[in-house]
Hints:
The protein has 281 residues and is of the alpha/beta class. It has helices at 17-31, 36-45, 63-70, 82-92, 144-152, 174-183, 197-204, 224-232, 238-243, 246-257; strands at 53-57, 74-79, 108-111, 125-134, 155-166, 208-216, 219-221, 267-269, 272-279. Strands 3-2-1-4-5-9-6 form a seven-stranded mixed β-sheet, sandwiched between helices. A two-stranded antiparallel sheet has the order 7-8. Helix 5 links the parallel strand 4 (125-134) and strand 5. The radius of gyration is 18 Å and the shape is globular.
Amino acid sequence: MTPTLVRHQSPAASAPPAQACARARDWAEIQERMLVPLYEAVYERLEVGPATRLLGLGCGSGLALLMAASRGARVTGVDTRPERLALARERLLPEGVWGRVGDRDDTRVLEGGPRAAADPSGARYDLVTAFEPVGCAAGDADGLVPALEAAVGLAERGAAVVLAGWGPPERCATSGVLRVAARLTDAPRWRPSLRDDLEDLASRAGLRPDGSGRVACPFGYADTDSAVRGLLSTGLFDAAARATDQVQVEKELTEALHPHLRRDGTVWMPNVFRYLIARTP
């Protein structure tokens, strides 16, 4: 099955460390890999290779960075979630165990925002990626605007900035499952993605749109348990768990996944994601 991903939010501040680590591992092993078609499409279109200096915002456990590094790119990733960053370091740094990229001193995985990624040598990035898809919750792009503005200060003039978002709800089977989170909270936040979400985000960050594309990114899981664990790892259901309880959220998720359960026990949800290529001023 071809994998894909969902926009992930910061884990709940009250989550126990053991639970946060388990969620990060579920993200890395089940959910994160599902945006691989999106990463591949963007890297192919932009001809990412040895001449590329890439800054990944919200790099998570580093799969997109690893794919860029395997094409020869010099990569830097930033994130505020230490549990996911620990897994990214395993993947990317010389002592990593998940597909090391070699003894390279130009691979950096840093905790914090874009400003933490400033190169001491003054070298600038020619590609900035923000692969966490927006458009499945009201205001889910608000926090990305200042991050993009800060990243622009570290990039070359005319550098490519890649934004990602959910496609039309009618082409995203997972939209119905995401409504569970809205139904269980006091202040529902889910909303269907809009055609100009990414263009609006680029405009707010002072970027100039320069092309876009759509990519099929189905969510495929070995069984219902894997699907529930993968979806919970996104953080999109944390508010619902706080409003009700974890058992209730898992029960509702399992029921919502039933229409997507196949005879062999696997779960399959076709989705389309959209990406926008914008340019720095």
